[in-house]
Amino acid sequence: MSEEEYRVESDTIGPVKIPKDALWGPQTERSRNNFPSGELMPLAIIRAFLNLKKAAAESNVEVGDEPEEKGAAIEDAVDHLLQLKDEELQKDFPLHVLQTGSGTQSNMNVNEVVANLANKLHPGLNILPNDDVNRGQSSNDTYPTAMNIVAVEALDKLEPAIKHLIEKLKVKQDKYWKTVKVGRTHLQDATPITFGQEVSGYISALKHDLEYIQELKPTLYELAIGGTAVGTGLNAAPGMTEKIAAKLSKVYGHEFKVKTNKFWGLAHHSGIDVVHGALKTLAADMFKIAQDIRFLASGPRAAYHELNIPANEPGSSIMPGKVNPTQAEAVTMAAAKVFGNDTTITFAASQGNFEMNVFKTVMIAAFLDSCDILTGTIEGFADKMIDGLTVNSEKMDELLENSLMTVTALSPHIGYHAAAKIAQAADKEGTTLKEAALKSGEVTEEQYDEWMDYMEMTNIDRTEPEK
């Protein structure tokens, strides 16, 4: 940079050249140059930090630990930043996830930007990043506080997507509740089932996943703020943190609390780890559902083709007219990413060395990534695949008629071994099950037609659709 393009500021290490118009200060500039790789710090974290800094300034004023005029200037600066659109806000927060594992530089990035903007808006107050904006705080307790806040926010966006998919699946469940088809176990033919019953299993899985998330989410309401450097709360004014929790609860609509063990809050991130476990479970169930549907829709001439899927885009650059299960593929790839993120988070959570975990930044980035891709792919799967899904009843009937496992209905009448011999004979001789059964002499045609009731085999009258 030429002398016209930069200004010089100093931190505890020495002077630093900073772009002239940048709102950040020397610690941000050092990090910008020292850690240039990987994804940028999620703006959700930055916005959570800004709300935290505002709550801290208000609380410090209320407990008499910060001059009122300085607190008001900090609040004013934060309000200006919070109203910016993401692309406008991003220019002042250039740091990457792969920095110091405590998130110190991003905490200081926020402190420096807020301080510099407050000084521009309120000249003469000399608001300092560390002494004023970071008053009563440490990166070691603010960053994990921001982590929990953004994790809760991300779950708030994911939950409606899961509910939306459940509702779309319920439509198909109810429509096809009595549409009989071949059941399959071990990738082999099994006894009949209705497509509605099959879908009800998907719905139940998603409802359980949603319940797991909702039951575990409250562990994220426990905030580390007030622990400061090592959990002892050094330099935090009495009563400050309770006020911060109350203010953040009002902003986000959740009952955040600070009456929790701060030594745990700084060195362990059990809440992030355990809740992401529920996200992994959701991803596993979504993989299974998407996998089932794309296989049942496979074909249309050379595979199952029990389902018809919407043609959202041309499926091939060389094969005209091809339709591919792209929404299912997106879901399964998202699941693979979530599985990888879970491994990252699990390992990162184990790295709480002594008084602090130093994998915080990568841990929350992985968590937010999982929430984001699950939210997007679940919504797309609901609207662009499930909504337009129909059954190919002729194919279902054909496969059901050719199935050998409906012989199970004969078992109570002629015995397991006799029924097995009929199925084996039909398979070996390439005949229908009925032909083999009549040839065996074990049943009459009248008995066969009476006992071979596909709908009765599904126990449809003894099962209920998911509500």
Automatic annotation (TrEMBL):
Q: Which InterPro entries does this one have? A: Fum_hydII, Fumarase/histidase_N, Fumarase_C_C, Fumarate_lyase_CS, Fumarate_lyase_fam, Fumarate_lyase_N, L-Aspartase-like
Q: HAMAP family given for it? A: FumaraseC
Q: What is its main location?
A: cytoplasm
- The active site of this protein is located at 186, 316
Q: Where is the Fumarase C C-terminal domain?
A: 407-459
Kindly give any further remark recorded in the entry: There are 2 substrate-binding sites: the catalytic A site, and the non-catalytic B site that may play a role in the transfer of substrate or product between the active site and the solvent. Alternatively, the B site may bind allosteric effectors.
The record's note on quaternary structure and interaction partners says: Homotetramer.
Superkingdom assignment = Bacteria
* Role of this protein: Involved in the TCA cycle. Catalyzes the stereospecific interconversion of fumarate to L-malate.
Q: Where is this site: Important for catalytic activity?
A: 329
Catalytic activity entry: (S)-malate = fumarate + H2O
Domain (Fumarate lyase N-terminal) spans: 15-340
Q: Which organism is it from?
A: Lactobacillus panisapium
Q: What is its EC number?
A: 4.2.1.2
| Entry keyword set | Cytoplasm, Lyase, Tricarboxylic acid cycle
Family label: Belongs to the class-II fumarase/aspartase family. Fumarase subfamily.
Q: What pathway is it annotated to?
A: Carbohydrate metabolism; tricarboxylic acid cycle; (S)-malate from fumarate: step 1/1
Query: Where in the cell does this protein reside?
Result: Cytoplasm
Specify which residues bind substrate according to the UniProt entry for this protein. 102-104, 138-140, 185, 317, 322-324
Q: Which gene encodes it?
A: fumC
Q: What is this protein called?
A: Fumarate hydratase class II
